[in-house]
Amino acid sequence: MFPFPSRCAMALRRVLALGAALGRRGCCSKPSLPADFVEALRAVVGAPNVSTATAVREQHGHDESMHPCAPPDVVVWPQAVGQVQELAALCHRCRVPMVPFGTGTGLEGGVNAVQGGVCFDLSRMDAIAELSLEDFSVTVEPGVTRKGLNKHLRGTGLWFPVDPGADASLCGMAATGASGTNAVRYGTMRPNVLNLRVVLPDGRLLHTAGPGRQPRKRAAGYDLTSLFVGSEGTLGFLTQATLRLHPLPEATAVTIASFPSVGAAVGCTVQVLQAAVPVARIEFLDEVMADACSRFSRMELPAAATLLLELHGSRQSLAEQQQQMEEMVRQSSGSSLAWAEGQQEREQLWSMRHNAWYAALALRPGCQGYSTDVCVPISRLPDVVVETKQDLQASGLTGPMVGHVGDGNFHCILVFNSQDPEEAQRIHAFTQRLGRRALAAGGTCTGEHGVGLGKRALLQEELGQEGLDTLRSIKAALDPHNLMNPGKVL
Predict the structure, then answer these.
(1) 432 in helix, strand or coil?
(2) Residue 469 and residue 475: Cα distance in Å, rounded?
(3) Run of H or E residues at 284
(4) What is the enclosing helix (H) or strand (E) of 404?
(5) What 3-state DSSP class applies to 324?
């Protein structure tokens, strides 16, 4: 049991007497918390770090997804790992649901408090605890964001390359197994996390690779780090992450190529990968997305299937890679290439790509967006993308396509009127067909966004009953009362 201040202990004793009354909540059951419970939270973190205000709760009850807001009963801002432990122990004893919150940039409803409870906003735990240039590693708390870390690393010759687009928190990125534009060369979050400090649902502290350890590889027992990466806040709070850093490339070049069809653009991607060109980024835009991005970012792109390609390396190797790339684009009937090597030009191009979500929403002002997220084997990518394009057109939906096609991962950004039941039904039917199309091709229903609220049925089809039962067994072992982010994944 954790040592509580005397005021907290008194409040806790009063709350524990009511804990049994709270019981285990059903999916739609949201009983109000007793006043003494909120008082106990304040005793741990201080009154300014606890809020029951409606606006604050609603702000923390949704992410960027289409899922309706489900606010928690109360929001807390712990300042240190010890406070997270005390808060978790309190919630555990009173059987109150707990929902971790980073920056709220997720796309699958991962922070929606569907059973109410306590939202743990970890943004104020923002220390960069340790940086080892010689070991290419850094240890960060959950309030540190991707852009914040790379700003801190400026001048060191190192960077953290996993780039999902949004300035997400790094522990949040670990929790969702985030990926992004650089994954084709540098990998997703999973291989770039070396260790995690986790507060378990009952308040115990776990270091997934052992306290203070950061080896670049290990074969000691079960891979607990990988278990928590992608767990979407359902197994514990990620309160610290030790990350793998990478050297900044000596030279970088970016180009845009247009193609006569979606099939030609995606087919070129496959050729580039088969030729083992060490490309850092291969991003795909269909003609609708290219036109939307062009108008939104004022870039004057042709309305055609498009690839954005980025190369990293020494100046000598870069010249050879550019020559290879130009030949393969030409063979795929792509446009001639002009390379941008200056930082400002490169940042302008990638800013356009990262604004694709907002460019898509601008196609239908006042409408809502939903991003699909399937990933398929590279060999099946051209067929699946073409079939999906045909399905979109036949369904009469607005759904520009974009993707990290170097990994076989692509998205349809579906823009629709949420007040139109018929259109919402077509959106649902399309997303189910797309998920099953990916599964039939040997792929997955989610490459990087996670399962969250909307893909639980597809997850069962993907893993089979045995796989799902195994996940439930793991969940039950670590969180037997189903308090950690209930209603998500399983």
Answers:
(1) helix
(2) 10
(3) strand 279-285
(4) strand 401-404
(5) helix
Contact by Cβ (8 Å): 279, 322: no
281 has which bridge partners?
A: 310
Query: Could you report the per-residue pLDDT of 323-361, keeping only the tens digit for each?
Result: 999 999 999 999 988 899 888 999 999 999 999 999 999
* Count of CA atoms in the C-beta half-sphere (13 A) of 364: 15
- CB atoms near residue 134 (< 10 Å): 5
Dist. CA 310–CA 191, nearest whole Å: 21
Which residues contact residue 419 at a Cβ distance below 8 angstroms, ignoring those fewer than 6 apart? none
| Residue 141 near residue 239, CB atoms below 8 Å | yes
Angle at 209 between CA 207 and CA 210, to 5 degrees: 60
Report the C-alpha gap between 89 and 420 in whole angstroms.
44
Using alpha carbons, list the distances in angstroms from residue 142 to 102, 206, 228, 314: 7, 15, 14, 34
Q: Each residue of 73-100: pLDDT tens digit?
A: 999 999 999 999 999 999 999 999 999 9
Neighbours of 156 (CB within 10 A): 13
For 157-183, the pLDDT digits (tens) are 999 999 998 899 999 999 999 999 999
- Tokens for 215, please give them: 């080896």
Q: Are 450 and 65 in contact (CB under 8 A)?
A: no
- What is the phi/psi pair of residue 65, to 5°? -85, 180
Decide: helix, strand or coil at residue 65. Answer: coil
What pLDDT is attached to residue 29? 53
pLDDT at 32: 73
Determine how many CB atoms are found less than 10 A away from the CB of residue 275: 12
Residue 445 DSSP label: S
CB 226 within 8 A of CB 285: no
Question: How far are the Cα atoms of 210, 256, 456 from residue 29, in angstroms, in the given order?
Answer: 38, 51, 20
Residues 61/88, Cβ–Cβ less than 8 Å: no
Tell me if 137 sits within 8 A of 158, measured CB to CB.
no
Nearest to 74 by CA among 21, 20, 37, 26: 37
Token pair of 106, please?
Answer: 């997720």
Q: How far is CA 148 from CA 124, 154, 170, 172, 416, in A?
A: 13, 10, 10, 14, 34
| Cβ neighbour number for residue 412 with a 10 Å cutoff | 28
| DSSP assignment of 116-166 | --EEEE-TT---EEEEETTTTEEEE-TT-BHHHHHHHTTTTTEE-----SS
Q: Confidence class of residue 30 from pLDDT cuts 50, 70 and 90?
A: low
The pLDDT score that the predictor gives to residue 26 is 43
Write the single-letter amino acid at 56: V
Query: To 10 degrees, the CA torsion angle through 24, 28, 32, 34?
Result: 10
